[in-house]
Amino acid sequence: MTKKPASASSSANATAARSTARTRGGRRAPATARKTAEADMAADVKTASPPALSREEELEAYRVMLLIRRFEEKAGQMYGMGLIGGFCHLYIGQEAVVVGMHMATKEGDQNITGYRDHGHMLVMGMDPKGVMAELTGRRGGYSRGKGGSMHMFSTEKKFYGGHGIVGAQVPIGAGIAFANRYQNNGAVCLAYFGDGAANQGQVYETFNMAELWKLPVVFIIENNRYAMGTAVSRASAQTDFSKRGVSFNIPGEQVDGMDIRAVKEAGERAVAWARDGKGPYILEMQTYRYRGHSMSDPAKYRTRDEVEKMRTEHDAIEQARQRLLGEHGLSEDELKKVDADIRRIVNEAADFATHDPEPDPSELWTDVTLPHDGPRA
Amino acid sequence: MPTDVLMPALSPTMEEGKLSRWLKKEGDAVKSGDVIAEIETDKATMEVEAVDEGVLARILVPEGAEGVKVNTPIAVIAAEGEDASAAATPAGTAKAETTAAKPDAGEAARDEAPRRPAAPVQADMELPEGVKTVSMTVREALRDAMAEEMRLNENVFVMGEEVAEYQGAYKVTQGLLQEFGARRVVDTPITEHGFAGLGVGAAFAGLRPVVEFMTFNFAMQAIDHIINSAAKTLYMSGGQISCPIVFRGPNGAASRVAAQHSQDYSSWYSHVPGLTVIAPFTAADAKGLLKAAIRSPNPVVFLENEILYGQSFPVPDVEDWIVPIGKARIARPGEHVTIVAWSHAMFHALEAAETLAGDGIEAEVIDLRTLRPLDAETIVESVRKTGRCVVVEEGWPQAGMGAEISARIMEEAFDYLDAPVTRVSGKDVPMPYAANLEKLALPSAAEVVEAARAVCYR
Ligand SMILES: Cc1ncc(C[n+]2csc(CCOP(=O)(O)OP(=O)(O)O)c2C)c(N)n1
Ligand SMILES: [Mg+2]
């Protein structure tokens, strides 16, 4: 996506005032705090009526969300053909989260996430060919075939992985933010993790340090309702993840993660907060993954109706499409062109990833350690 | 163009499955994401989704078919208004294509794994004859190393529990806060897992953190970041992301602090590719190696020893004293038996050598200094001369450094051995508290003397 400098700072204060969904440690009246989690969820997320995007913004968001969706569908297909091995976690259904958040950032801001990372890379402008070729374990992949689906990086695009240990990206992300503050470079790090990861101890160690040191980091909890086969309510005593920072005084919000406009709006507020030196901010993105946890997920923990309902009633791409055709006045033909363009990009990526050679056997021994008296990578 | 829907693999090991049910019939409109069929393996039932929009033009494999090979076309999806018959792909074509597309470099790789290239060894910088030295403690040497590197490089900073205001739990960071301020000398909460990960992130993003663990016993809480995040990322990123970070602190037995506070992690970290592991004995090595570690672009585990902190040694009084990583030091030359040790165990090795000399046995004592990369060359060269080797380590024997060193000697100097390689190690028990038991649990000079005599058959 092309980037423009963020102008979030001034608008953020205005929007913050009318937001009712925020939680700030210790400030809530006890009566409110006793509300059930479900009631909170409903109240918090439904009251928001996000501001409309401009025609250009909506079209660009649609384009990138569609790129991620088609890329993931293709990856699923290629996995089925045996071209992709091991674990492959698809992002289908959650596209609005990264795309909306990305629209709220500016050039130089960093991203870090777990293993469900393809969307996060594409949104940062990483080349779909390089990503797909890493999935197939080829030499043209971002990690030259040595990382795979879960481990890709781009220092140029400020993407710091791609981490396979649930929760590990959270302190690492705060460390990147620590470096931002240390170097006073004005950048904000977005650290994404799942509802399951939100139960890891290191997340809370990180919340504490991030607020203590006022690090410019936004913690984005992608609540897709399941950690593998475990529904949120079976694993979490507090299912309102926006409150997970309360005892550290970190503000949090629940956001409709299936609505690109809501994500962007909340994202701007959170990023401005972090950039202004006020410290971390938590955004719980309520989202949904349509596919299995990874490719070999029999999906016995949820009904087909549940998936179908999310898909037909809440799909972020479909919503954006309707707005483009409706209020933005685009024609079906114009959108067909976008679709065709995306298909071409994805097919080219798949083609490259299928035919690119595997790494040279000598690569087995490279990139283990650097010369001790040489430069860093 | 009409597209084939292929029988998908549900896992890397699946070869065939049953097509249990079609959920759409020929002529149905489908869009991307629609479930069109269910397939079954011995492990699970899975749904097949359409990946394209269009019409389910033809079903090629009927419901209930068993043993359908992965990658066989099972249906054809045509775009609206497209001629379905155009897609009469004969079964098997797609599979063949896929196989053909697979480069065979992988097979070659499996057949003949390339040999590991020799690691480049840094140029030695041995102490020039007659250079002036000053006496200082290991503690002071470590502090000076950090202070010098912080003066040289703005990106170097120190973090850990009690490193700043308290001046270090063992006073190793004494005076750093006063000179460099709170931005660069950072007191952390008691949160090893968290601050180790945070340090790794800071290193990824351009800084050079020196992370102090109050002792390495507590680094077990952080070992995931040391290994999974710091050591492996250069490789997993294809050389893109380096992690110049030093994890340092006291390691091994202190004195009378019992099992949870007295473990030696030498072999744990030395097991891991991507890590560099250093365990100095003298103050000169502590200073020169810590400076080298801070400058290294690699993650370094720097194992200090609490008992050594207060010991004084001569340290070269030169501008920028650097000791190369990966080179062992002959601490005492000899011809009859090689004694290998590092860190605190060097005391036992040197004391034993002195005793043995009284009996006419000249021991060659090697101070490893770096445990990974292991300077096997220096060990092997010595053993070729002496024909005998005793390894002294304070850690447990099983899968320890001594086990590794004897394997290397067996591989590279078997014909030169006149006696089995012998280990003198910590006893295979958690560290006891009682003074007498603790003493028994640790190796001693007497045990080293006994082992050396045994391998010399005297
Ligand atoms: C420390 C650790 N424990 C377990 C796993 C295995 N595992 C991988 S993903 C996952 C579920 C995580 O769910 P969530 O954080 O909600 O993310 P999502 O997959 O929904 O995106 C588990 C248990 C792991 N990779 N790391
Ligand atoms: Mg989840």
UniProtKB/TrEMBL annotation, chain B:
Known catalytic reactions: N(6)-[(R)-lipoyl]-L-lysyl-[protein] + pyruvate + H(+) = N(6)-[(R)-S(8)-acetyldihydrolipoyl]-L-lysyl-[protein] + CO2
Protein name in UniProt: Pyruvate dehydrogenase E1 component subunit beta
Cofactor(s) essential for the protein: (R)-lipoate; thiamine diphosphate
InterPro entries in the record: 2-oxoA_DH_lipoyl-BS, Biotin_lipoyl, PDHB_mito-type, Single_hybrid_motif, THDP-binding, Transketo_C/PFOR_II, Transketolase-like_Pyr-bd, Transketolase_C
Coiled-coil residue spans: none
Lineage of source species: Bacteria, Pseudomonadati, Pseudomonadota, Alphaproteobacteria, Hyphomicrobiales
Biased composition (Basic and acidic residues): 104-115
Protein keywords: Lipoyl, Oxidoreductase, Pyruvate, Thiamine pyrophosphate
Organism of provenance: Camelimonas fluminis
Single GO MF annotation: pyruvate dehydrogenase (acetyl-transferring) activity
Stretches for region Disordered: 85-124
Gene3D superfamilies given in the database record: 2.40.50.100, 3.40.50.920, 3.40.50.970
